[in-house]
Amino acid sequence: MKKTHKIWIITLFPDFFESFLETGLAGQALRGKRGVDLSVELVQLRDFSESSYKGVDDAPYGGGPGMVMRPDILKKALWEGVIEKGQYGEDYKDKLHVVFPGPRGKRWNQEVCIDFSKRIWGEESKDLVFICGRYEGVDERFIQNYVDEEISLGDYVLTGGELAVMAIIDSAIRFLPGVLGNRESFEKESFNGGLLEHPQYTRPRTFEGREVPEVLLSGHHKKIEAFEKAESLRITRAYRPDLLEKE
Ligand code: ADE
Prior knowledge:
The protein has helices spanning about 20, 25-30, 70-85, 110-125, 140-145, 160-170, 180-185, 220-240, 240-245, and strands at about 5-10, 35-45, 55-60, 70, 95-105, 125-130, 135-140, 150, 205, 210. By secondary structure, it is an alpha/beta fold. It folds into 2 domains: about 5-175, Alpha/beta knot, CATH 3.40.1280.10; about 190-245, tRNA(m1g37)methyltransferase, domain 2 (Trp Operon Repressor, Chain A). The protein is elongated, with a radius of gyration of 22 Å. The mean pLDDT is about 90. Adenine binds near residues 152, 157 and 158.
């Protein structure tokens, strides 16, 4: 039986996700076109505001610049927009994994991504809920009570969680069985066993005086494999020596 996975996204900007959900490999997978039953539900946070102007934020206690997203409205969106709508019931905590992307979260990389994908969709078999933060932040009490995992893309601050959510989904669904073809789905742990990809070449054979390496034209598979391995090491040494030091 085909496993069904649902991804809920609570956001003030559902339009952000439109082309992401329509195009490319992620788009295909998310529309159930790549042998996996994966679907996305966008939840407009503003729909859960009870104020006449549909506000979802307020000034921070203690003062300071910017606005903070209210925990009661986020909770209402999670309850009514996800838990009730998706009929998860009282034991929703066993069925949902709530992610809040933000700069203080766990640093996302290929290893963390593979682990996340296998854990959430494999062992735990849960549906995902992403909370997209905006403004200066989200009330800490909502995070404490409802968020299972905080994830950071890196040491910089985005204006909102939407881009981070797309990056997390895009990289994680590659490790759902069936999304990629055979070759890639057996991709070794982390980048190619801790190394960067070797450079790639296509036609024309000569481009602005630069030739495609001769060995790649030889048809000699063993030699090509050895060359690509050496190139992978050379590129890693040149671009990301820190990856070699980790070994
Ligand atoms: N939201 C704002 N900044 C972020 C970051 N660095 N990673 C993930 N989500 C974010």
